[in-house]
Amino acid sequence: MRMAIRRAFPFTIPILLGYIPLGIAFGLMLENVGYNVIWGIVSSIFIFSGTGQFIETGFLNWHTALYEVALITVILNSRMMFYGFSFLERHRLVGACRYYLIFALTDETYALLCATPTPTDVTDRDFMLAISALNHCYWIIGGVIGVTCGALINVDSTGVDFIMTALFVVLAMDQQKAYSTNEPAIIGLFSSVSALLIFGSDKFMIPALSLIVLLLVLRRKSIEAKLGNEGGRGRESEPTAAADAGNDGRRESADGRNSDHGHECGRVHESESEGGRDE
């Protein structure tokens, strides 16, 4: 696991630079409505939802009913169920750890897990856990700093949240360069823009994600054929291919390290770069 953390950390640095300031902002808001550091720690550990935690401060201040909190939270994070479709196969292989991976899935973690191939010297399970846990820790640290220091911190953080948008743009460009077909990117762009024009900026996210999933399902065979992925999937086919034949094995290994983490996600986070992270 230590090796997985060492391999994952460089990829999570952009998340670190975004989560710490945002976590501090949340901590400051929580302190301003009268809650101490214990509440900040518990909230950051067990809620771990940027937008959910920001509106939590309003819920606490206004004494909102629990059923209203639950309903708003479900609606706010409903996009996560679309993210989960991309990890159905990978989560079957990680055992009980899947429950933490599901809990710790955020927009940024999702983007990294889709775009970053697992290093050959660590398991996919450990690498996914390392990325998720590191990002979780960054958010907790930021929240604790904010709620502890409170009014002592006087920093203008205007524009810091753009780090997240920039991250999505870079990851989308990396995936675009890595694969031989533009079809998933075109589907993501078309769906996002269409939903934005029809539903407006406040309501376009769920329709856009729904349309992306539908089009990717309909075009799955065509996309897989273009990516040369019909004969095997990811690292699971690597040992067998290498044992069967030299050159063919090396080609399948190279394809495997790059295929499994990208095309299934279908460029869903193309819509995130259009709408930004709502956290």
Could you give the topology of this structure?
Elements: H1 2-32, H2 37-46, H3 50-62, H4 66-76, H5 80-85, H6 88-91, H7 98-103, H8 107-115, H9 124-149, H10 162-178, H11 183-199, H12 205-218, H13 220-227, H14 238-244, H15 246-259, H16 269-275
Helix pairs in contact: 1-2, 1-3, 1-9, 1-10, 2-9, 8-10, 10-16, 11-12, 11-16, 14-15
Summarize the structure.
The protein is mainly α and 279 residues long. The chain has helices at residues 2-32, 37-46, 50-62, 66-76, 80-85, 88-91, 98-103, 107-115, 124-149, 162-178, 183-199, 205-218, 220-227, 238-244, 246-259, 269-275. The protein has a domain at 1-160.
Characterise this structure.
With about 280 residues, the protein is mainly α. The protein has a domain of about 160 residues. The chain is built from 16 helices and no strands. Helix 1 packs across helix 2, helix 8 runs parallel beside helix 10 and helix 14 packs antiparallel against helix 15. The longest helix has about 30 residues. The radius of gyration is 20 Å and the shape is globular.
